[in-house]
Amino acid sequence: MIAIPARPYDYPLAPGSTALVVIDMQRDFIEPGGFGASLGNDVARLAAIIPDVAALIGLFRERSWPIIHTREAHKPDLSDCPPSKIARGGASPRIGEEGAMGRILVAGEPGNAIVEELAPLDGEIVIDKPGKGMFWATGLHERLTGMGITHLVFAGVTTEVCVQTSMREANDRGYECLLVEEATESYFPQFKQATLEMIAAQGGIVGWIAKLADLQAALEAEAKTVGS
Ligand code: TIU
């Protein structure tokens, strides 16, 4: 076990059974003309974390530890998108309608792709999820269980919506969860801050939070131990 100086206390990171989850780093949330922008948000805030997410992905790639990328994506016939979801938010254009990068939040459309800088490599898992959480209607829990994964490190957008929902779903399924502060972002800075605090409150009620540098240092210290 590696002790990362996480808040509120050390996260018991387990080599061999830890995976990175990168939530919804898609053009639809990060670039102008996508779903995030259609909701009236300033998407530039989210683009700013791309280098830190890339650095975190790099830490896992160096170690050949599993990486899961999720996309919030609906089938072209929208059969997996309840009317309540389409109606919510009053977005224009709405889910399924034509936007600047193709149909909004629809699988296979240009806007639904993960941003180029963070494109998944062969062998990494890519999950299309119709909900905010990564376990709903995806079969991911069974895949992770089959791989022996017990610990999940989280990154991605948005902190208080799909990241937090996925973390809470993971927590309920027994995973040890850690969120990397610089590798997640919200359209609303106060929502990000509140989410970090509510995740780690009450002795880590949902999981732990840590700085990227602290995770990196802990992984490097572990590599030296293994190598010595
Ligand atoms: N609206 C918003 O902040 N987020 C979402 O709709 N999806 C994700 O967080 N991925």
Characterize the structure shown.
By secondary structure, the chain is α/β, with parallel strands linked by helices. Strands 7-4-3-8-9-10 form a 6-stranded parallel β-sheet, with helices on both faces. The protein has a two-stranded antiparallel ribbon with strand order 1-2. The mean pLDDT is 92. It has helices at residues 27-30, 35-38, 44-47, 50-63, 83-87, 140-147, 159-172, 189-204, 212-227, and strands spanning 2-4, 11-13, 18-23, 67-72, 98-99, 102-103, 125-129, 151-157, 176-185, 208-210. It starts with a strand and ends with a helix. Tricarbonodiimidic diamide binds at residues 24, 29, 39, 72, 132, 157-158, 161-162, 187.
Order of helices and strands: EEEHHHHEHEEEHEHEHEH
What fraction of residues sit in β-strands? 15-25%
What is the count of β-strands? 10
Helix fraction bin: 25-40%
- SS summary, helix count: 9
Q: What is the makeup of the main sheet?
A: 6 strands, parallel
Shape assignment: globular
Q: Pairing-aware structural class of the strands and helices?
A: alpha/beta
